[in-house]
């Protein structure tokens, strides 16, 4: 795992249906993300916040809200993530809404193509984010980034990074999904996306889920985690704009993060959709930082070896 980390704040809710995710980066800083990571012996640089257009809060135009502004924010993020990877640093993107996964993951995919690495994306989310303008009347692009990364959508968005599609659907593993529109579900199946929804987790358990999601990785795999805070059950993480009941518990989420850490392959991370305006005393940000710490070595494991029976 990379020991040189760069925090990149992206203070925008340009792709969302509710205001407030623009304050997410500061809430994560207030919750101590830098000092927590440094306590594990990591070299952490906070690059501050990227700049981009303000949110005009307009109705959709031709099926997309704020298309030009979303393109600009994601292009800026794409270049910032590429720059960190080129310096052999691990970018941690502090969102911001999840439309930003487009800029972040397209940059990671580009880096993998240029360096001959295999890519694996873990998409931790309540939503599949595989909508298109034809499927959603809202036009909110934070419900579309996975579809856009897989080439479904307008060229200004699908072409960020210079290659369309930016990724093959086969590199993605979605975990915690529990809210998918009917048309979106059809598109997900057609694309061949691998989805471990909450029913799967309920039936098989988080350990088996993560074993399946992480299967097939090797020393040449770049593991990217895109963590939408609404992945978590809203009982423990109320500070998001799109709460969906029935998400992973605290312990399930911890196990998920610890098993990712065990691979030693984590190379880039998004933390998205934290909305302090809807939070209670920064509780959700503190929980997010707690879980991020588990990605970097904090463990509940007291035994010398984990049981494998």
What does this structure look like?
This protein has helices spanning 24-30, 33-38, 67-86, 101-115, 145-149, 155-158, 182-191, 198-204, 206-214, 250-263, 283-295; strands at residues 4-10, 43-49, 90-95, 118-124, 172-177, 194-197, 221-228, 266-272. The chain is of the alpha/beta class and 309 residues long. The radius of gyration is 18 Å and the shape is globular. The two termini are 27 Å apart. The model has no long low-confidence stretch (mean pLDDT 96). Its cofactor is Mn(2+).
Write out key terms for the chains shown:
309 residues, alpha/beta, Arginase, Chain A, 8-stranded parallel β-sheet, 11 helices, 36% helix, globular, hydrolase, manganese ion binding, arginine metabolism
Write the topology of this structure.
Layout: E1 4-10, H1 24-30, H2 33-38, E2 43-49, H3 67-86, E3 90-95, H4 101-115, E4 118-124, H5 145-149, H6 155-158, E5 172-177, H7 182-191, E6 194-197, H8 198-204, H9 206-214, E7 221-228, H10 250-263, E8 266-272, H11 283-295
Helix pairs in contact: 1-11, 3-4, 8-9, 9-10, 10-11
């Amino acid at each position: 795992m990379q020991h040189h980390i760069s925090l990149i704040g992206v203070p925008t809710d340009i792709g969302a249906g509710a205001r407030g995710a623009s304050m997410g980066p500061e809430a994560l800083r207030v919750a101590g993300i830098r000092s927590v990571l440094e306590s594990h012996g990591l070299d952490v640089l906070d690059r501050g916040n990227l700049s981009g257009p303000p949110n005009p809060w307009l109705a959709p135009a031709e099926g997309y809200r704020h298309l030009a502004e979303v393109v600009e924010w994601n292009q800026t993020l794409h270049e910032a993530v590429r720059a960190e990877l080129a310096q052999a640093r691990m970018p941690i993107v502090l969102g911001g809404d999840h439309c930003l996964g487009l800029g972040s993951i397209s940059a990671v995919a580009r880096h993998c193509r240029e360096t001959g690495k295999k890519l694996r994306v873990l998409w931790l989310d309540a939503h599949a984010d595989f909508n298109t303008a034809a499927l959603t009347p809202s036009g909110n692009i934070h419900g579309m980034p996975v579809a856009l990364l897989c080439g479904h959508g307008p060229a200004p968005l699908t072409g960020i990074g210079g290659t369309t599609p930016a990724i093959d659907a086969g590199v993605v593993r979605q975990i915690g999904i529990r809210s998918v529109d009917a048309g979106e579900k059809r598109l997900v199946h057609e694309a061949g996306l691998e989805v471990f929804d909450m029913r799967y987790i309920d039936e098989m358990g988080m350990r088996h889920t993560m074993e399946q999601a992480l299967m097939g990785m090797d020393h040449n795999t770049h593991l990217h985690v895109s963590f939408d805070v609404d992945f978590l059950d809203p009982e423990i993480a109320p500070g998001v704009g799109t709460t969906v009941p029935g998400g992973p518990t605290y312990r399930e989420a911890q196990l998920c993060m610890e098993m990712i850490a065990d691979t030693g392959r984590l190379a880039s991370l998004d933390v998205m959709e934290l909305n302090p305006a809807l939070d209670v005393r920064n509780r959700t940000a503190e929980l997010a930082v707690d879980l991020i710490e588990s990605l970097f070595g904090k463990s509940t494991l007291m035994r010398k070896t984990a049981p494998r029976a």
